Automatic annotation (TrEMBL):
Coiled coil: none annotated. SUPFAM superfamilies: Clavaminate synthase-like. InterPro entries: Isocyanide_synthase_DIT1, TauD-like_sf, TauD/TfdA-like. This is Putative pyoverdine/dityrosine biosynthesis protein. Belongs to the isocyanide synthase family. Residues 401-646 form the TauD/TfdA-like domain. GO terms for molecular function: oxidoreductase activity.
Length: 649
């Protein structure tokens, strides 16, 4: 059983909240005596800052998270024990009962897929700076509320099982799913084949036990709504989504306007009461977890996050079980209600089920059947459909390369998988000419990128098995151009517009990733006080030795895309001798703070802005070299990994 399939093991002993150590003095001074720097405290802060960056309030207004100091001792204790940091999110109950005009069905769809990838990416970001990593517990609240909303226990089970299969299929190893019986410390069945029947037969008992054991004594819901800001915010959220959830409930259909409002308010109050019991059980059962929430809050005891990242300024978006996903032509994902997009978007199916909406455009209409799968956080994979042993996959000769080029301007990288003749070099080159103007190297059109085995300083790190710095292709390519009016001749950087790859051989799984960092997403998550306007005025310089021996200065940090005028990051990551035996690179900011260097180096690897791509033999790939940066992770020496690359304008 994979890590994502298993539930949290039940604990039979009474769980007691541990006494957490007080946080050390943040200044490093105690009674006037200087103390050694607390490396555990500093690492805990670094981890919490990553978690904080996922907060909607932090992203929108740089508002400090009030719960930071609350959870700091807890995270510091994990760090001091070299244990994974644990987070818990009560969420993913079941799809809304309104399956006519609010959601696409009763099972998870692209919204849940994006949400799980987003949460797993948070854990990956923590693992990048803290080796023990992190795990995120998803505590389903389906059985807590489903009977109130008229959703069957069977629907709750099927929804949860589909989530587990989705996480396993996507290799989301940092996520753990928790059922209500785990929360109440009851053992699940030894035989997994009996789990569904056991779940359905015990669901009503589990609900009653939750309320009996954990509902606060003398709870006055109305008073809690009036006096507790978090409770009031949650109640208002309930009122908002229940209006649509219960739109087709028999009692709502027959009720007057006032009667409907009363029914919604009563349901919301009942959910508040259940929620109080649920929150108390989580606090008792998982006292060592940083608490996340999908609801608006003041942030003292939890962190409010959006599960499907939205454009900046959107606030907390509807959750996947209260909406559908719409894919926009600029590559963004929106959570919407179907009626908002049904005329402008196509409904896309997966495995025979409605999965998401996609804005209509000619680039998605191909001359033969294909499946276009959108990736997180960016990119698409296109595979031919309707193929079998009688109907072979189409040749790359049939691929409409101008559509691929257009797709790459919006959804880079574009991966073409499952086509035939991808390793026919003459056909591969022929398709490059259809993509655009081919830019030859000094040695020919195609560069074959593989480990040459060379290890001396003057070797080329591109043809090695080392990790590479984040960069764009053509950074050293210049041309003298004369100004049409003044006649002044100036050296101008002329990098290629597109990269075009095919993959004859891969590295062992888990190594040799190619990473693609999206400029659009980089600027989406760029924190204050930095902005596009500020970075557009910034100039930088780089000093390289070895194979790439060059000194470049007055380089623009941001350029505008020739197709849509969007801001695009131009960058080469600093790379010193601790990272390579080949060419090193020193980078300096010429007219602004050097803090920009570290800011960029962190954000271009952030899972919210960077796709970690795993190659398969025969993949073709086209990437917009203006909109995207890229790099490679290291791989085993003497490995057969090989890519062919052509530059195109």
């Amino acid at each position: 059983m994979s890590p994502t399939d298993r539930t949290v093991s039940p604990i039979h002993d009474q769980v007691k909240t541990p006494v957490l150590p007080e946080a050390p003095a943040l200044s490093g001074v105690n009674n006037g005596v200087c103390l050694p720097e607390d490396k555990h405290l500093n690492k805990a802060k670094e981890i919490l800052h990553i978690i904080e960056s996922y907060s909607v309030n932090f992203q929108e207004s740089k508002t400090a998270w009030e719960g930071f100091e609350v959870f700091l001792p807890l995270v510091r204790q994990k760090v001091s024990n070299s244990q994974p940091v644990r987070m818990i999110l009560p969420a993913f109950p079941m799809k809304s009962p309104n399956r006519k005009d609010k959601v696409l069905g009763r099972l998870p769809d692209f919204g849940e897929e994006l949400a799980l990838l987003h949460l797993n990416g948070l854990c990956d970001n923590i693992r990048d700076i803290y080796e023990p990593g992190a795990e995120l517990l998803i505590q389903s609240d389906g059985l807590v509320y489903n009977d109130i909303l008229g959703v069957s226990d069977a629907d709750v089970w099927d929804y949860g099982e589909s989530l587990r299969h989705m996480a396993s299929e996507k290799h989301l190893a940092h996520l753990r799913f928790v059922r209500l019986w785990d929360l109440l410390q009851h053992p699940g069945p030894d035989d997994e084949s009996l789990a569904r029947d056991l779940y359905l037969s015990h669901a009503p008992c589990l609900r009653r036990e939750l309320i009996y054991r954990y509902e606060p004594e003398n709870l006055n819901v109305d008073q809690a709504i009036r006096n507790e800001e978090d409770t009031c915010l949650t109640y208002r959220g309930y009122l908002k989504f229940l209006t649509r959830d219960l739109a087709y409930h028999p009692n709502m259909i027959e009720a007057s306007k006032k009667g409907a409002e009363k029914l919604i308010a009563q349901t919301a109050r009942q959910m508040i009461g259940r929620g109080k019991a649920f929150a108390a059980a989580i606090k008792c059962r998982f006292p060592d977890c940083v608490r996340l929430s999908i609801h608006e809050s003041v942030g003292k005891g939890k962190l409010s996050i959006s599960l499907v990242p939205q454009p900046k300024g959107s606030g907390i978006a509807p959750t996947p079980w209260h909406s559908a996903v719409a894919v926009c032509l600029d590559g963004t994902y929106l959570t919407v209600f179907p009626e908002e997009v049904k005329d402008t978007h196509d409904l896309v199916y997966k495995a025979g089920r409605p999965y998401f909406y996609r804005e209509k455009a000619d680039m998605f209409r191909w001359p033969f059947p294909v499946k276009i799968e959108h990736q997180y956080p960016c990119g698409v994979i296109i595979t031919p459909t309707d193929t079998d042993h009688i109907h072979p996959p189409p040749s790359i000769r049939e691929i409409p390369m101008q559509k691929v080029r257009t797709l790459s301007n919006h959804f880079s990288p574009v991966v073409l998988r499952g086509f035939s003749h991808t390793l026919d070099e003459s056909m591969y080159v022929e398709k490059a000419h259809e993509l655009g103007k081919v830019l030859p190297w000094s040695f020919g059109i195609t560069q074959k990128v593989k480990d040459s085995g060379r290890t001396d300083k003057m070797g080329n790190n591109v043809t090695s098995n080392e990790a590479m710095p984040m960069h764009f292709d053509g950074i050293f390519k210049f041309e003298d151009r004369e100004h049409p009016v003044t006649g002044e001749v100036k050296r101008v950087q002329i990098p290629p517009g597109y990269q075009y790859f095919t993959c004859p051989a891969t590295a062992p799984r888990g190594t040799g990733f190619t990473l693609f960092a999206s400029s659009r997403l980089f600027f989406r998550y760029l924190p204050e006080p930095f902005s596009v306007d500020r970075l557009e005025k910034t100039r930088w310089a780089m000093d390289n030795n070895g194979f790439w021996n060059a000194k470049l200065g007055d380089l623009p940090l941001v350029v505008r895309h020739p197709v849509d005028n969007s801001p695009c990051l131009r960058w080469h990551q600093p790379w010193d001798e601790t990272k390579t035996k080949f060419s090193t690179c020193i980078v300096t900011i010429e007219n602004d703070t050097q803090e920009i260097v570290e800011l960029i180096n962190q954000l271009v690897y952030d899972r919210r802005a960077c796709l970690y791509f795993t190659w398969e033999v025969g993949d073709l790939l086209v990437s917009d070299n203006t909109a995207m940066l890229h790099t490679r992770t290291s791989y085993k020496t003497n490995c057969d990994r090989e890519l062919w690359r052509i530059h195109v304008d």
